[in-house]
Write a structure and sequence with these properties.
Layout lengths: L2 E6 L6 E3 L4 E3 L3 H5 L10 E5 L11 H14 L5 E5 L5 H11 E2 L4 E5 L12 H13 L5 E6 L2 E4 L3 E3 L8 E3 L6 E4 L2 E3 L15 E2 L7 E5 L8 H5 L5 E6 L11 H11 L3 E6 L12 H4 L7 E3 L5 H14 L3 H9 L10
Parallel strand pairs: 1-4, 1-5, 5-7, 7-8, 15-16, 16-17, 17-18
Antiparallel strand pairs: 2-3, 6-14, 8-9, 9-12, 10-11, 12-13
C-alpha cells in the first residue's frame, strides 16, 4: 500500500466560522477523517507546517513547504498539500521550481467551501487528490481541483465562488478525476520513471513586483520601484504593446535593465501569450539585453520563476538561461 504525506497549510478547506469570519482551524488529520473511503486508497501521514489563510502565504512559506517535502521525500510515494485557493497557483508554481524533476507526485488542492459546509467541494477534491497521488503514472507538481489535474505552472484561479475555480492556462489539463479513476488524454504516454531524486532549491529573491500597464501610467514609476525591487514583471497591453508617446517609457525601461535589474515582459491578456515582434510599440523591446519575454507563461509562474532564478544568480546571461529553460511545462518552447 502506498504512503502519502498530507501537508496541511490551512485555507478555506480547513476553516470554520468564529464570529469574525472564516479562519483556518482544522488540521489535516481532521480534514481527512471527514472524507469517506480515503483511508482505503493508501496509508496517510500528516504534517502541519502552518495553518494560515492563503492570503498570508509568502515566499518563505514556499521554502518551508519545499523543505518538508525534501526531508520526507524518500519515505513517501507522494505528497498532497492542502492549501487556500487564493494563492494556490503561486505556491504550485513556486514548488515546481523549488522541487524540479520529481518522479513522485506533489499535489495541491483546497476547496471553495469549508469542509464543515453542508455543500462543500472539499471532500471530493481531497479524495481525488489522494487518488491522483496514488496513481503510478503521476509525477511532478500539479493542482487537482474540480475533477481536473493541472500542471503546477499552468494553474490560475479563474472564479471566486464556483467549484470549477481553476483553469489550465495555455496548456491542456494533464488528467481528469472521474469517480474512482484517473483518466489521462489518449495518446499521451507518461514518462518512464528511473528512481532519480529531484533537484531541490532553497533560495528565492522576493524583491519581484508585477506592474500592470494602464492608460497614463507614469514611466517615473520605475524610479520609485528601484530601491525596493530587483525585477519588474510588466503586464503589457494585448500581445505586447507598451506606450510610446514621447519615448519616456522606453528610456525608463532601458534605464531599469541597464542598472542591472531584470525586466520580464508579459501580457495582461490571460490566454495565448506575448509576441513583442508584432507591433512597432513592442518591437523595440524584443531584443534588448536584460529584457525577458514571458511568452505564454502565467503571471503566477513568472513571479515564482523570476524569484527562483534571481535566487540562484544575478548574472544576466545565466539568469536568461535559467528563465528560458522549460520547467514542468511552464512555457511552450519557441
Amino acid at each position: 500500500m502506498k504512503r502519502i504525506l498530507i501537508i496541511a497549510t490551512g485555507g478555506t478547506i480547513a476553516s470554520t466560522e468564529d464570529g469574525a469570519g472564516l479562519a483556518p482551524t482544522l488540521t489535516g488529520r481532521e480534514l481527512a477523517a471527514r472524507v469517506p473511503l480515503i483511508d482505503t486508497l493508501c496509508e496517510l501521514d500528516f504534517v502541519q507546517p502552518m495553518n494560515i489563510d492563503s492570503t498570508n502565504m509568502r515566499p518563505h512559506d514556499w521554502l518551508r513547504i519545499a523543505g518538508v517535502i525534501e526531508e520526507a521525500y524518500d519515505r513517501y510515494d507522494g505528497f498532497v498539500i492542502l492549501h487556500g485557493t487564493d494563492t494556490m497557483a503561486y505556491t504550485a508554481a513556486a514548488l515546481s521550481y523549488l522541487v524540479q524533476g520529481s518522479e513522485k507526485p506533489i499535489v495541491l488542492t483546497g476547496s471553495q467551501q469549508p469542509m464543515a459546509s453542508p455543500f462543500t467541494d472539499a471532500k471530493l477534491n481531497l479524495y481525488h487528490s489522494v487518488l491522483y497521488a496514488c496513481d503510478p503514472a503521476s509525477r511532478d507538481v500539479s493542482v487537482v481541483f474540480g475533477g481536473k489535474v493541472i500542471c503546477g505552472t499552468r494553474a490560475r484561479k479563474q472564479r471566486t465562488m464556483s467549484f470549477n475555480a481553476f483553469t489550465s492556462m495555455n496548456y491542456p489539463s494533464i488528467a481528469y478525476a472521474r469517480g474512482e479513476r484517473v483518466v489521462r488524454p489518449a495518446g499521451v504516454a507518461p514518462a518512464e520513471k528511473t528512481g532519480a531524486r529531484p533537484r531541490f532549491f532553497d533560495a528565492l529573491d522576493d524583491r519581484v513586483i508585477v506592474l500592470k500597464l494602464t492608460p497614463e501610467l507614469r514611466p517615473s514609476i520605475f524610479g520609485l520601484l528601484a530601491p525596493e525591487y530587483d525585477a519588474v514583471i510588466l503586464e503589457t497591453f494585448g500581445i505586447g504593446g507598451i506606450p510610446d508617446h514621447d519615448g519616456s517609457f522606453q528610456r525608463a525601461i532601458f534605464d531599469w535593465v541597464e542598472s542591472g535589474r531584470a525586466l520580464v515582459v508579459t501580457t495582461q491578456v490571460p490566454e495565448e501569450g506575448l509576441d513583442l515582434g508584432v507591433y512597432e510599440v513592442g518591437r523595440a523591446y524584443a531584443e534588448k539585453p536584460g529584457i525577458l519575454r514571458g511568452d505564454d507563461m502565467t503571471t503566477e509562474a513568472l513571479v515564482a520563476k523570476t524569484m527562483w532564478a534571481l535566487g540562484q544568480t544575478h548574472d544576466p546571461a545565466e539568469l536568461s538561461r535559467l528563465f528560458y529553460e522549460p520547467v514542468n511545462n511552464d512555457r511552450t518552447p519557441r
